[in-house]
Automatic annotation (TrEMBL):
MF (Gene Ontology): 3-beta-hydroxysteroid 3-dehydrogenase (NADP+) activity
InterPro entries: Ergosterol_Biosynth_ERG27, NAD(P)-bd_dom_sf
Keyword Cell cycle: no
Native source organism of the sequence: Aureobasidium subglaciale (strain EXF-2481) (Aureobasidium pullulans var. subglaciale)
GO biological process: ergosterol biosynthetic process
Protein name per the record: NAD(P)-binding protein
Lineage of source species: Eukaryota, Fungi, Dikarya, Ascomycota, Pezizomycotina
Xref: SUPFAM superfamilies: NAD(P)-binding Rossmann-fold domains
PANTHER family: 3-KETO-STEROID REDUCTASE ERG27 (PTHR43647:SF1), DEHYDROGENASE (PTHR43647)
Family, similarity comment: Belongs to the short-chain dehydrogenases/reductases (SDR) family. ERG27 subfamily.
The entry's keywords: Lipid biosynthesis, Lipid metabolism, NADP, Oxidoreductase, Steroid biosynthesis
Superkingdom of this protein's organism: Eukaryota
A single cellular component GO annotation: endoplasmic reticulum membrane
């Protein structure tokens, strides 16, 4: 986005799902801080947060206003009286949505479409882990013998198998059920993004909107089975959902998926469809894993030790972890597009050095690499191979082709599933 476009587009609207805690709340705080420092005075931010309940929404807005006040006080110390000017540039509002309930998702989409307000960024952050505990012997052995790797790529989590999110009607009927983790992490957002895409079209003086999907460093290729997209037979539903997210976003601009993405983003003549970006926060201490207080602090210490041992993937703080998604939200659109066009579509990660200094880098993805190009090396300034997943192999022509074929398949399957459920909801 250049300066003249900034001035023409006075209100910049960002919707963040799952904003009441952890990474979602920190993303909102960071959006406020960086928007005030990076965008021109002529532009204001409308931060639209979603939670599952009215009480959580009110509480989230209250805490975000409190954070805004702290930011304004700091600004006043540098430039007395500036807070009044800055405060007028931030608007915070909220909506309720249950991403596991497709009716709720459709209703939110309809409310926002009826208002007709422009949406510039949709951050698909909300999600659940679906874990029931740890394999303690495996966890203890892995951490004691290979601390840094075990704290980055845990394979000792125990997930629920077959957990479902029942939809309307006969909740016991298989055709009224969806995989719970799959729906919360992927399909609910997939439906929401489809519904809101008309509000994110580009054309004229408007740039295309941005759909930012939050993935994970734990998006293992081996966790995903194309025959079980909803991971109903898997004890790694979370990891499967994140691998599915990677496949969808990284192949979203390939010619082979155009038929599916055109329908999904409701592409129209003379309008540019929204652009999808992929981010992950590294390893952060959040509430997605429900742990007793003692274990939570033990996890926190383990993560700091992993960072001190040289892992670049441990921001630990969710505020630091939000740097990649906020950068994708506010960086000039033209520079992001140019970078992905020339160097390939990326999975952008939040990374820190041993002292916690943050940066945004490309993450290596199995079968795709750093940009979907065979022969890439970790020699670019935004690429790292440090603390690499030990099962990772260099991208070959064959693995790159397999990745694209799998991406084409999951796009086709997801579109069929969307159409099926939209027919059910309309019936």
């Amino acid at each position: 986005m250049n300066g003249s476009e900034d001035e023409q587009q006075l209100v910049y609207t960002v919707l963040v799902t799952g904003a009441n805690s952890g990474l979602g709340f920190s993303t909102c705080c960071r959006l406020i801080d960086e928007f005030l420092h990076s965008r021109p005075q002529t532009q204001s931010l409308h931060l639209l947060v979603t939670t599952r309940s009215t009480s959580k929404n009110k509480d989230t807005q209250t805490r975000l206003h409190a954070h805004l006040q702290k930011t304004l006080l700091k600004a006043d110390k540098g430039t007395p009286g500036i807070s009044k000017v800055l405060a007028s540039r931030i608007k915070i509002s909220g909506e309720q949505v249950d991403l596991c309930n497709l009716r709720s998702v459709k209703e939110l989409g309809k409310r926002l479409l009826d208002r007709g307000d422009r949406l510039d960024v949709l951050i698909c952050n909300a999600g659940i882990g679906g874990w029931k505990g740890l394999n303690w012997p495996s966890a203890i052995w892995a951490i004691l013998t290979d601390w840094r790797h075990a704290c980055t790529y845990p394979t000792y989590k125990l997930g629920f198998v077959g957990a479902v999110a029942a939809q309307e009607g006969d909740e016991t009927a298989p055709d009224q059920q969806l995989g719970e983790v799959f729906t919360a992490n992927v399909f609910g957002h997939y439906i929401l993004a489809h519904e809101l895409s008309p509000l994110m079209k580009g054309g004229g003086s408007k740039e295309p909107g941005r759909i930012i999907w939050i993935s994970s460093i734990e998006a293992y290729a081996h966790a995903f089975d194309a025959e079980d997209v909803q991971a109903l037979k898997s004890d790694a539903a979370y990891e499967s959902s994140k691998r599915l997210t990677d496949l969808l976003v990284l192949t979203s601009e390939l010619p082979s998926t155009k038929m599916s993405t055109t329908a999904f983003l409701q592409e129209a003549d003379k309008q540019q469809k929204p652009k999808m970006f992929l981010a992950h926060p590294g390893v952060c201490a959040t509430s997605i894993a429900d742990l007793p207080l003692v274990l939570w602090y033990a996890m926190l210490l383990a993560q700091y030790i992993a960072r001190w041992l040289g892992s670049p993937w441990h921001p630990v703080s969710s505020y630091l972890g939000a740097v990649s998604s906020v950068w994708l939200s506010l960086a000039p659109f033209s520079s992001l597009s140019t970078q992905e066009l020339t160097e390939g579509k990326a999975k952008w990660a939040s990374s820190t050095d041993v002292f916690g200094n943050e940066r945004v880098v490309r993450t290596e993805v199995g079968g795709w690499g750093w940009g979907g190009k065979v022969g890439e090396k970790a020699d670019g300034k935004m690429r790292l191979s440090a603390n690499r997943w030990r099962g990772q192999e260099d991208v070959t022509k064959e693995s790159r082709e397999e990745f694209e074929v799998l991406g084409q398949r999951v796009w086709r399957d997801m579109e069929k599933l969307r159409e099926t459920w939209e027919d059910k909801l309309e019936a």
